[in-house]
Amino acid sequence: CTLVGPGVSPSSSVATSSPSESRAPVPSVAARIPTCDEVPEITAPAEYYRDSPIYVANEMPDNALRRWATTKPGFETLWIDRTHNGWLTLAFSQDAAARQAELEAEFPDVGAVAVGVDWTMGELEAINGRIRDELYPDVAHGWGIRDNLGMVTIAIGARSAERIAAVEQSFGGERVCVEGLEAKLRRRTGGK
Fold first, then answer.
1. 131 Cβ partners below 8 Å, 6+ apart?
2. Residue 153 bridge partners (DSSP)
3. What is the residue-wise DSSP string for 129-144?
4. What is the reported pTM?
5. Torsion-angle region of residue 104: left (phi > 0), alpha (psi -120 to 50) or beta?
6. 113-169 confidence digits (pLDDT tens)
7. How far apart are CA 69 and CA 155, in angstroms?
8. Cα angle vertex 65, ends 60, 69, to 5°?
């Protein structure tokens, strides 16, 4: 990512009680943003995996599987799952069970699984694109898509209450998580 652009630009929402009656703008209620280590990795059901093959380096046939997957509806992305023998995970936003059956039939000796996801890469890319304009440089120092989490990560340096609140204000309820060190206060005692 290229890190350039203006700082934080918090958003607000307008609450309406009916289509014809509107109220004064009120700040949006921000949802809690998880840390990225709290977000579980996306995996297939355990029965989809076998003991072999085991991929040590990057010898899995990712190009062949990507070509195959791009012809299927709802293909979003693929990644290497190092916790499952280096197998490839192919994410589909529709018909993942059908894709799993096809994978097993068409690639019986390949270590690959299909998983269903409730997001699209387009949605993640749109969020990723907004971070620079809304949070850089005052809050965000880096950002990117973690497809194996289905999230956009936002590196905020020290996880201070102020920085987290700024992320929650702009991206609460969206597919984002924060990375950073926990901010701790240091007390000086005895001149040390």
1. 140, 143, 152, 154, 171
2. 144, 177
3. HHHHHHHTTTT-SEEE
4. 0.78
5. alpha
6. 999 999 999 999 999 999 999 999 999 999 999 999 999 999 999 999 999 999 999
7. 31
8. 155
